Amino acid sequence: MGKTSANPFRRRIVECALVLATILILLVPAVWIGPASTHGLSKPNLATAKPVSVSFSNVVSVASARPSSGSGPNISSFTVNPIALPLGARVAIWVQVNDTAGVLSYAYSGLPSGCVSRNWSEFTCIPAVEGSFTITVYTNDTVRNSANATAALTVTAPHMPSITSFIINPTTITVITTATMTVTASGGTGSLTYTYTGLPHGCVSVSLAILSCTPNAAGSFIIRVFVNDTVNHSATATTSLNVTAQSTSTGGGSSPLSTSSLIVIGVVIVVVAVLAIVLLLQRKRKTQAVPPSSAQGADPPKDVA
């Protein structure tokens, strides 16, 4: 009997297990996948979507579809500074973007030669040609929403510095005497700097338009000045300076003694000094050689009445 009663109990357990397994099989896909609207499995409504075409400089045009309600990058400012500059000067370009979705990419078109498009929001470059340019920046986010903006740039011919005059006063000086150099220059871009070469010993180059020079050596010198602006355009000019040795005469128009004459005079002075010393020594010896007794035994002179 025990065996007969156990079989129905075992059968019920198996039936319950089958029911539970069936329920799990039905519930697991729903739990794993979830609602279709939550996980983006619903079919997109292409009727409400519109194609977007974005063209980049040196990049193939791409097309995508996004809902019309989607938000894209918003360019708040696009700056080119300065907007006008001479050839050889540096220009800065930067863009500010708001309302982005992920990482942005950048491309630029209409740049002058010497400037290359970069995937950067800001960069600098030096235009290599003159002209007027309309620069366009394109920016895309990670879902291919895009925006663009333009700015103008004018590159003009370089404004070269020029030297009107370069004088030195006086043009002939003696050693340890001061001469003053004066440069008159104009033009160029930005401030001007001055560099002097060929200066005599004792003079140092300083970036000044008026430079004082006090040589400590004689000679003839060709002095050159270089005038540079902030974009390395330059002008140059030369002048000459003659520096003579100082005269050693004391006045009266007489010429200074030569070296040989000074040597002869020195020898004569030494010989005279030696002779004087010898004579003094001989006199001293004669005085010491007289006996004292001879001086005491001598009869005094008699008075004559």
Give the arrangement of secondary structure elements.
Layout: H1 2-33, E1 49-56, E2 59-67, E3 74-81, E4 84-86, E5 91-98, E6 105-109, E7 122-125, E8 131-140, E9 146-156, E10 161-169, E11 172-174, E12 179-187, E13 193-197, E14 210-213, E15 219-228, E16 234-244, H2 259-289, H3 292-296
Parallel strand pairs: 4-9, 11-16
Antiparallel strand pairs: 1-2, 3-5, 5-7, 6-8, 8-9, 10-12, 12-14, 13-15, 15-16
Walkthrough of the structure:
The structure is a single chain. The protein is an alpha+beta fold and 305 residues long. Among the domains are: 86 residues, Immunoglobulins (Immunoglobulin-like, Sandwich), CATH 2.60.40; 84 residues, Immunoglobulin-like (Sandwich), CATH 2.60.40. The protein contains three helices and 16 strands. The strands form five sheets. It has a four-stranded mixed β-sheet with strand order 4-9-8-6, with no helix packed on it. Strand 15 and strand 16 form a beta hairpin. It is elongated. It starts with a helix and ends in a 9-residue tail after the last helix.
Summary tags:
305 residues; alpha+beta; Immunoglobulin-like; 4-stranded mixed sheet; 3 helices; 16 strands; 22% helix; 38% strand
Give the integer mean of the pLDDT values: 79
Could you give the order of strands across the largest sheet?
4-9-8-6
Helix coverage percent: 10-25%
Main sheet specs: 4 strands, mixed
Class by alpha and beta content: alpha+beta
Summary?
22% of the residues lie in helices and 38% in strands.
